[in-house]
Amino acid sequence: MVAPGITVDGSTKIMGVIGDPIAQVMTPTTINPIFAARKVNIVCVPLHISVHELDTAWKGLKALGNLIGFGITLPHKQAAMTLCDSLEPLAERVGAVNLVRREADGSFRGYQFDGKGFVRGLKGQGHTPSGSHCLMLGAGGAAIAIAFALAEEGAASLTIANRTHAKAEELAEAVNRKMGRSFARAGDPRPEPGQIVINATSLGLSASDPLPFDTDLVDGTMLIAEVIAKPEVTPFLEAARARGAQIHSGIHMIRGQVDLIAAHMAEAQAKV
């Protein structure tokens, strides 16, 4: 449903969100009311595009003259980089994009808001990344952005646990090189007391998914966070809460970045 205050007409600009699957995305629900409040004639809609159809779909997106851009969710955040006409420096450094905007010259430029959104979401809920020791599960698009954002926010350390250990090592080395300090390392998915533990994998999108690790390892000193926004409380978060841990839904990462994205897209509206 289009948010109250938005009338879809011939001058409405479209913002898409592409992914596979797409039913879990919360961006349209959260950003359309912001567009309405800003009184900009933009509507955000989900677009289901499979991995195998991304190249073809990209040409179609480029051909839509009233499309001002689109958000990107899994599994396209890294593949989309090679299709963008240009990248902002942060997206280039992170190696993944989660927003593409049509610029004034019609080109598609890639941007990255995941890391900023995750940190803003934590702080908005009263949590302090600065000085914290963190464990992150995953080394894909969102995980890469979060790793850099935590380092820039002043987190004390980050252990990256990934199914492919070499990818975790590669990410840790990239962050350490950029930050000029020994901040990140590859390790095992074994949380330690007092850590912020982040599930940045896709495990939890389906009710049949296994948990990222044995939640018997969780205790009440930990904050367990997700990047998955739907369901807002995943089985992983439920299990962690049962162990006495604080939990932090992925919806806060979405809410932490949508106002930034809305302003970014509203800026583009007048140029398209």
TrEMBL record:
It comes from Nitratireductor aquibiodomus. It comes from the Bacteria. InterPro entries: Aminoacid_DH-like_N_sf (IPR046346), NAD(P)-bd_dom_sf (IPR036291), Shikimate_DH-bd_N (IPR013708), Shikimate_DH_fam (IPR022893), Shikm_DH/Glu-tRNA_Rdtase (IPR006151). This is shikimate dehydrogenase (NADP(+)). Pathway: Metabolic intermediate biosynthesis; chorismate biosynthesis; chorismate from D-erythrose 4-phosphate and phosphoenolpyruvate: step 4/7. GO terms for cellular component: cytosol. Its EC number is 1.1.1.25. One of its GO terms (biological process) is chorismate biosynthetic process. Gene3D superfamilies: Leucine Dehydrogenase, chain A, domain 1 (3.40.50.10860), NAD(P)-binding Rossmann-like Domain (3.40.50.720). Pfam families: Shikimate_DH (PF01488), Shikimate_dh_N (PF08501). Residues 131-178 form the Quinate/shikimate 5-dehydrogenase/glutamyl-tRNA reductase domain. CDD domains: NAD_bind_Shikimate_DH (cd01065). Residues 17-100 form the Shikimate dehydrogenase substrate binding N-terminal domain. GO terms for molecular function: NADP binding; shikimate 3-dehydrogenase (NADP+) activity. It catalyses: shikimate + NADP(+) = 3-dehydroshikimate + NADPH + H(+). Keywords: Amino-acid biosynthesis, Aromatic amino acid biosynthesis, NADP, Oxidoreductase.
